[in-house]
Amino acid sequence: MRVSAKDPPEVGGGGARTATRGSYGMDGGYIAVVVFGLAEVGLMSEMIWALRRGHCGRAGLAAVAGAAVAGLSAGYLYSTGPGKRSVWAETLDELSLRGDEHVLDVGCGRGVVLILAAHRLPRGRAVGVDIWRARDQSGNNRAATERNAVLEGVGDRVEVIDADARQLPFPTATFDLVLSSLAIHNIDDQEGRKRALVEATRVLRPGGRIRVVDPPGTERYAEWLRQAGCVEIALRKLDWRTWFGIPGHHAVLIAARKPL
Fold first, then answer.
1. Which of 26, 32, 41, 257 is the most exposed place for a label (fewest CB within 10 A)?
2. Closest of 133, 140, 77, 135 to residue 114, by C-alpha
3. DSSP letters along 164-198, please?
4. What is the pTM of this model?
């Protein structure tokens, strides 16, 4: 269904190229926040207990550990918000889109990448599909995505559809570009992840491109895309903005093209 509402004016002549007005939730739901929070409470309790009993060394260690946990938590929050947005903004700018493309976001969640793409498509169309699991992203539901598209001023060029990445409801050769951000790894089995990439390739037009970002350990995607017929396949470790609270835990960008 296409989002239909009176959209606010876009910013800066060519339109805003970021996604900052909407509410995009947290990747992985609230599990990470709960884990970090419980660890912080435990360490602060340990520090207070140690101070009351005069164990200054033990209190100091707890304080240092608490500061480290707070830093990791801040890193996670940054990656799931502005860090991820900035990485995808750069990735989309590198594609030098004409502005009239038909783009698909597989596992769009609450729409941050979908909307970043839509801002670059003044004459095009951005379609997002998802099955809306809250464990994958907090507050994950179709209505939130549609609302964000309207808030960001791109409701007239965004369409959101209920669909499984392993069985996309589109004809072959429909899209110029397929995107996916931290979604395909959420498919439980390896065969399902492979099927999702095969489907992404199927719905691409000849010459169309794929860009997928997923956590480390997804290097098999390159081989599956090759088996699906893609060329110009490249993997790139992303920088600290995608650590998600674990230093050195780089997400990976997989790029490919469907031959003409």
1. 41
2. 140
3. -TTS--S-SS-EEEEEEES-GGGSSSHHHHHHHHH
4. 0.84
